[in-house]
């Protein structure tokens, strides 16, 4: 029991119990431990002393009306079917380490028992977070390639070798990848590894350049060249002279901007607005986009002559779902970074939370992961560890066919698990969470289905409100 108590995080335990109290108000919940004299001790003092019926908890078993479950059934909460004694309150018990304690004890109004029964799986899921679950080992140490973190087995390894060789040349580099994969980080790595690393690195988003601003923004202007031009302005292309110019989302350039850029690349000269003389520019061009450029060129949406000039060395950055081994490294890095920025305490991630992070598809890639860690620190930064229930609700929903790209299974076992998860999810949704009906439709026994639901972490599917775990919220 001492081992179990030592593995529990008091601040996380308190925050979880406070969340349950808000959902089942008025109610109070606490952690109980058996004493040497056979009674139960309230460890957090939230109950103000245990009920008389709890005095015999340490005498070889639970008292009547309170039925803790065996470990193999720990995902189900046992509640008394009727009030054991006259009174306005009832009690429920949740074992964390078998029948010998410690226990989570809840004291709630009798008229809230039915609400608790209806949300039994929700409460079971939440209390399971309190079971001792040390953070999984970090595995291999993260490799750092000019601020790009990756696992030694990551597909980024071969890509970064190509990037290193490409950086030594003067050929333009074209980075392809979905939004949020961190294309600017790779562009900065190209600059740092190139002979032009002593020059400036200038970045610009092609989608943000309008035809009306292109002249002044890229080429600069002379003082008095137009209304509001009160001083001379150096354009971005001139600022990147001797260095690297990174043009993000080049696929979004308008037709006019494509013509202007092509001319600069051909002549290596620019002319400021309001001036007659040409100014030489010498920069390394790195472009990036999330669009299918081959299709855009074939469809006439992007000039073929410009495409051949900017696509010298094409490098594809894989999305986060294709490199799952990088996810724990990045999640821990972003969590520590956000905590340090906000003076928070959160530095580690529990095993259930990490499993959920691995299962999610991350359509927003690294940027979405970073934002999720920032959200967790903002809401629960006073906690030392990120727990599964602290994560955003969207991470709990498995994607259905047609909802977007899914993570490609790495082997046959993962493919079988993926199919199994989708079929069970569909059955639970079709039968509104009814385990018995879902088991019959799948040709399984109810106990067999419950084991699969636990293993695949589908306890929330089909429940009322689809498991809203955030603090505050509405009543269950």
Q: Portion of residues in helices?
A: 25-40%
* Main beta sheet: 5 strands, parallel
Question: What is the number of helical segments per DSSP (H or I, 4+ residues)?
Answer: 17
CATH class of the largest domain: Alpha Beta
Biggest β-sheet: strands ordered side by side in the sheet = 8-11-14-7-15
**Terminal residue distance:** 32 Å
Shape: elongated
Q: Which runs of at least 5 residues are low in confidence (pLDDT < 50)?
A: 1-7, 55-86, 399-408, 464-476
Query: Over the alpha carbons, how many angstroms does the gyration radius reach?
Result: 30 Å
The CATH architecture designation of the largest domain is: 3-Layer(aba) Sandwich
Provide the CATH topology of the largest domain: Rossmann fold
The count of β-strands is: 17
Beta-strand share of residues: 5-15%
CATH superfamily of the largest domain: P-loop containing nucleotide triphosphate hydrolases
């Amino acid at each position: 029991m001492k081992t179990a108590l030592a593995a529990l995080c008091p601040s996380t335990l308190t925050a979880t119990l406070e969340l349950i109290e808000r959902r089942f108000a008025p109610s109070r919940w606490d952690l109980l431990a058996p004493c040497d004299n056979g009674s139960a001790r309230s460890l957090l003092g939230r109950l103000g002393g245990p009920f008389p019926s709890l005095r015999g908890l340490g005498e070889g078993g639970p008292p009547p009306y309170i039925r803790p479950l065996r470990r193999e059934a720990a995902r189900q909460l046992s509640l008394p079917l009727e009030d054991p004694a006259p009174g306005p309150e009832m009690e429920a018990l949740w074992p964390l380490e078998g029948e010998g304690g410690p226990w989570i004890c809840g004291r709630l109004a009798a008229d809230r028992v039915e609400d608790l029964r209806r949300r039994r799986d929700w409460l079971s899921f939440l209390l399971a977070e309190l079971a001792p679950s040390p953070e999984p080992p970090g595995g291999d140490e993260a490799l750092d390639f000019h601020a790009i973190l990756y696992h030694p087995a990551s597909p980024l390894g071969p890509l970064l070798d190509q990037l290193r060789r490409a950086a030594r040349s003067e050929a333009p580099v074209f980075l392809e990848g979905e939004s949020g994969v961190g294309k600017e980080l790779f562009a900065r790595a190209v600059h740092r590894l190139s002979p032009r690393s002593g020059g400036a690195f200038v970045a610009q988003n092609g989608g943000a350049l309008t035809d009306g601003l292109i002249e002044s923004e890229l080429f600069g202007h002379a003082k008095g060249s137009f209304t509001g031009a009160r001083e001379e302005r150096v354009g971005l292309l001139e600022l990147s002279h001797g260095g690297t110019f990174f043009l993000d989302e080049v696929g979004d350039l308008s037709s006019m901007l494509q013509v202007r850029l092509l001319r600069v690349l051909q002549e290596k000269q620019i002319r400021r607005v309001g001036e007659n003389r040409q100014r030489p520019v010498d920069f390394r061009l790195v472009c990036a986009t999330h669009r299918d450029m081959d299709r855009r060129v074939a469809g006439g949406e992007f000039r073929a002559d410009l495409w051949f000039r900017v696509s010298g060395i094409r490098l594809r950055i894989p999305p986060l779902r294709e490199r799952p081994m990088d996810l724990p490294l990045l999640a821990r890095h972003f969590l520590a970074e956000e905590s340090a920025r906000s003076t928070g305490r959160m530095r580690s991630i529990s095993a259930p939370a990490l499993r959920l992070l691995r299962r999610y598809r991350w359509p927003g890639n690294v940027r979405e992961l970073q934002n999720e860690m920032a959200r967790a620190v903002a809401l629960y930064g006073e906690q030392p560890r990120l727990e599964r229930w602290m994560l955003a609700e969207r991470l709990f929903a498995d994607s259905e066919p047609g909802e977007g790209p899914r993570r490609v299974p790495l082997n046959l076992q993962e493919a079988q698990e993926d199919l199994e998860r989708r079929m069970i999810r569909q059955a639970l949704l079709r039968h509104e969470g009814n385990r018995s009906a879902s088991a019959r439709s799948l040709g399984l026994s109810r106990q067999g289905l419950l084991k699969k639901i636990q293993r695949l972490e589908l306890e929330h599917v089909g429940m009322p409100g689809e498991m809203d775990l955030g603090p505050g919220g509405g009543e269950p």
